[in-house]
Every structure is written in structure tokens, then in C-alpha cells.
Records
---
Amino acid sequence: MSSDFARVASLSEIPDGSLLGVVTPAGERVCLVNRGGEVSALSDVCTHQAFPISAGQLLDDGTVECVWHGARFDCRSGAVRQGPATDDLPSYEVRVVGDEIHVAARGGAGAER
């Protein structure tokens, strides 16, 4: 496992269709998304007004909705799908090794998609 990746959670902590807020060893707030068994990771800070994305919900179409003002983002890329947010959420590269979820540090190799 590359040193650019850090273990942040186990698969058992994030059931299908759910979000989980975690903090990397570097102190970055990350929202893990499990959609159909595929885990992705986005910044856990809404680009509209810094509310935790992990407090929101994952919609059936793969959109993550911020519970505060309803901004919506693609669960894989972090692209804005609905305002009031205008800036995309940063995304992180994810590796699942056995039951462990590892996330790349931002700025490291492969950190952003």
C-alpha cells in the first residue's frame, strides 16, 4: 500500500446507500459514499457554506444532497448538479483492501479525480 493512502474506515461502517464522515490522519474531513457497493470519497465540506456533506443523504440517482441548503453533487466526481453551490466538491482516490477503505491524501499521487 502506497504511503500516499491512509486507512480511514472499514466497509462494515458504511452500509450500501449511506454516507460516512471521517477524518484522515492529516486532518482532512472526508465524506465516504457507498453506492451499490462502490465506495467513493468527497470533501466533507460543502462548497456553498461549509456544512458537513456526510450529514446529508445519498439519492437514488447517485447525487449527494447537502441537508442545509439542498446543494447537490455527483457522488463520484463531486461535480455540482444543483445549486446553490457553484463549486464542485474535491474528490479523493479510494482503494478498498479487504474490509479496509483507504483514501489518498490530497496533493499526493492520484489524490484528485
---
Amino acid sequence: MLPALLHAIAFAICLLVQFWGSPLAGAWLFFYLAGCAVLLYQGGYPQHWNVTWYACLAWLITITASALLITPTQGGAVVMWILAAMPALPLCMREEHLKYYGRAFFTVILLFASGLVLQMVLNTQVTAYNYEGLHAWPLLDPNNAAAIVTLGLIPAFYQALRRIWWWIPVVVFVFALQATGSKAGIGSSAVGCFLIALHRFHTSRMFWYGTALATAAAAILCTKTQLLYIVIDSFNDRLPIWSASWPLASVRPLFGLGLGSFGYYYDKVRIEDYTTGWHSHNDLLQIAIEMGLPALFVFAWLTASVAGSFTRNVPASCAMLAIWLMSLVEFQFYIPAVSIPMGLALAYHITPTRKARL
């Protein structure tokens, strides 16, 4: 229970830092490293060393080598720890730890989502964040908040299809996701939940009738409202970022420009002025720019290893898929509040036994 508690505290601190701009700042790293140390002291390393486990190890080594050996840069170590939070957890977590981690992390996410819903109901913005002229109650970036809520929603939805009381947290997460106003988050969560329902009811004729009806309703909603135009505008906002960032990947294609250096180089080529310029809003592109194409290949191997064994742990796979989809238009892997729970999802995926099913 101790390592789960330490990592849950690290996760909660990350949320506080994002939520209020808290001066706690890097305090999450102390609890995170302490949790990993306790795991290893208690006899870490999972019993099941499969392809995904080795892919995690390769990705962790790649991150560390990029930051400390290949292209050291100012601030690169900070980014290294953020990216390393995801692969490090499953590498040192055994099956018996999973139930404590699942309860601890789910509690933190549920409390966070409940806070968003409460703010929305009271029409009170703790972060005073105004998102595209609309009220948005979460984090410093609504899309990152949506990713965190999604990591609670998809496993809860999986359980709700088997135990009726799980619909209570599902409803909380759905309203919290609405509070974020994140189009990428809502869309990716819908994909993840649909795949879970497909896995559960793929032989049911009523499931396919319901899917057809929901698709038709969504099409009508998009054509009869401004929703489709809002989504297109949001995508178009990213095109100038990608077009300006893409040439940076060819400057040092093998070794990258260095972790944490994107903002410095992007400032010299940017053609838009409505973002902070710290991220490319596409994690694959930013990995290629900062770490090089070989590192992107290793990350792709990790992604493919999960996709290739999707049914090993369906809720964990669907949750990770949703975050990967968001990362194509956002910067989810560069946020510790996302990277840490993603590590837990990977740990569930690596452990294929029935007892480890979330």
C-alpha cells in the first residue's frame, strides 16, 4: 500500500500544480521516486516480461540517454523525468501492487472530476481560465484535464457494463468531461468507450442498432449546429503550428535538438501568436524534433506492442488509445499528471492474468 500511496500523492501534487499554479512545483518528483524505490525494495519487477515490458524498458533508456548523453540541454532533465514517469512504473510494479494502485489513482481522479463538476454547477472558476470565450473549469489547459478524466471514465465504463453501481462515477466523469470543453477529449473518450462496448456486446443485434442510431444522431447534431465548424476551426488552429514545426525535425534527425528545447527553436520559426509555443501540439512530432527519429521509432514500438495485444487488458488498452489519440493534437505525454496514471495503465496491460483485469 505504501508505494501506491506515495505515487497517488505525486499524482495529486501534479494536479494541484496544474489546478492552481501551486508553488509545490517539482515536489511530485520526490514522492514519485520514493514510490519507485519502495516498489523495488519490496521486490519489484513483474512476473510477466512480455514485449510491452521490453518496449517500456527501451523507451525509458532512450529518454534517459537523450537527456543525459546524446543531446543534453538546459531543462532537459525535467522533461526526462516527466516522460519517464510512464514507462518506469510498469517496469518495477508487480501484480500484487495493482489493486492498491487502482483504488488510489481512481480515488484521486474521481475527486478531481467531482471538483470540476462542482465548479461547473456553482459557476465558479478556481483557475479563472477562459477557453475560446466559453467557461472552462479545469487545469491550466482543458485538454490535459480531459485526458485525466478520460483515464477514469473508460475503466469505470468497463466496470459499469458489469456492475450497475459503477454508473455513478461514469456520470460524474461524463459531466467533468463536459466541463473541460475539450473536443479532442470528448471524441477520444467516445472512441474508447465504444471499443469497450464493442468488445462486450459485439454479438448483440441491439448493440448495432443502437450504434447506428447514435451515429445518425451525431451526424444530425454536427450538421444542424455549429459543432462541426468548431471542430474544424480547432484543427485548423494547429496547422500553422505543425507546418512551422515540421522543418525542425530535419535539423538533427538522428539525435534531435534536445529534450525541452522545442520552445527555443519554435520561437524562431513560428507563424502564429495564439499559443505559448512550448509544445508542437503533436507529441509524435515533438519527440522527433527533440529526440530524433530513432527515439520516435522506439516510442512507435511501444505503441505497436500495446495495439498488437489489445485484448490482453481491454480497459487499459482503450484508455491508452484515447490518450494517444489526444496526443496527436495536444501534448499529453509531456504532462506529469497524465504520464503517471498512464504508467498504471501500462502496468495493467503488461500483467495479463485474470486477477489483474481492471
---
Amino acid sequence: MALARSTLVYRVRALLGDDKGWQAWLTAQSLAADTTIDVNDGTDWAEGDVMEFSDGELAYVQSIATNAVTVVRGYLGTTAATQASGSMVRKNPVYYYKDVKDAIDLTIQSLWPYAWKVVDDTITPSTVYWYDVAATAIDLISVSQLYGTGDSVLGLYGADSYTQRPIIWSTNLPTALVASGRGIGFPGGFFHSSNTVYVRYRAKLTADLSGSDYSDLSDGLLAEVVAHGSAARLLMSKEAPRVTQDDINQNQESAPPQARLTAAQVMYQKFTELRNQLKDELMRTIPEMGSV
């Protein structure tokens, strides 16, 4: 599972109609400490404009001399970084990259119990009663172990002691017993005294990154859920842009409050529909084990 952050940010902006904003490019490299940015056409900029680079850094325009723009780097708490010659820069985006990113992260973190990821773990039988699992574990999907002649039999652990060996699952254990506070007990013993026990469990999705990719996100329905949820969050907190020149000429560059709230409601409704569809799909394919 991996989805580039930049891809998801673009999709959210596209849903908001903020993906085709005015853009320019740099004609020379700009180091993180530089306060002058060389652009292709300085007449396109004015004091008070905000530049946004592709990595999310913001720069506040203070003055312009021909094609050299004097700026405050790392504006609004963003991090100043080296920007390459030829790289694109956005002018006054309605939704800043950092705001879109924050909305995405909050949406991902709020998806439980409608969405989850599957984590595979292993346990080596020993003399302890409780066995530690990851702190992100929510509940079990399956627990199994090979045994018998040539390890040819699959033993299943679960609540049904008639057909399976029982297990106990707890999420509130003292850390003195298991470091994560979450663990599995095997009151009926193991099918095999030393073979690896394979544990699969449901866990909450995180906004963690691997490089520039979300570790827990993949393209498809999950990405659409996050994109629509993030767009709804942003619409609830900021004006929705208009897109035609006629609107701009009439000083109606943004939607009035009631229209903004209506747009947010529609976007949120679509988000909930997609989220419920995702939950139904997950429940059919990778449901929890059940009561243990």
C-alpha cells in the first residue's frame, strides 16, 4: 500500500476547483536562505501575494524589481527549502498545500471504524501467558499455526473451542506484561510447542509517510474516500472559489457563505457514501474474527 502525497493533494484540490490556479516558474535556483526569487515575469506579482512551491513552502511577496521578487521565506510556519530552477510556483492558492495536507491527515485518522488496514504478525510459543502485538492493533482477523506430520495440518485459534483452540484478546493490559498494552493469551495451549503462530489483525490507518508516499493508503476507493473527506473539511472552513472570469469581473471570486456550506454538505454526503461502501467491501473481504 502506497500513494504519493502529491497525488492525493492534487485530487483534493481538483474536487475543490483549486487545481488550475495561476502558475509561474523560477528562472534560477533559490536556496532556502535566499530572500530573492527570480521568476519568468515579475509583472505578474504584487506586494502581498503568496507564492507556493511544489513542496508546500510558502513565500510572502514584499517587493518586485523587474523579474526579481523579494520575499519572506517559510511563510505561515512552512519550511524554507532549496527550490530548483524551472520549478513551478502557484500564486495565491485558495487552499494552501499545508492546509490540504492537514485535512488529509485528519481524515485518515478519523476513518476507524469505517476503514482499516490488515497487519500480519508472528508469535513464537514460550512459557509466558500473554504475547505482545503492535500498539495499533484493534482486533483479530485470524490466528493459525501449522502442526502434525510434516506440519501439514493448519490449526485455527478462536472463540469456538469445539473446532478451534481458544484465545484471549485484550487491549488494556499492563505494560509490565506486554509493551504495547495489547496482547493475546492461549489458555488452551498451542497446537505445536515451537512452530510459529501466524497472527493477522485489523489496525487503524495512519497518516505515516514512507518517503513522499502514504504508507497505509493505496489508489482506488480508499483514496477517493480520503479525498472527498478532506475536501469536505476544507469547504467547511474556507470559502469555495469560483472559476469563471465573469465571476471575477463581478467581484464574486468566491462563493457566498450559504453556497459554501451547501457545497460542503454535498461533498460530505459523497464522502459518507464512499466511506460506507468501503466499509461494506472490507467487511466482506477482511472482517474481524468475532468475539474472542
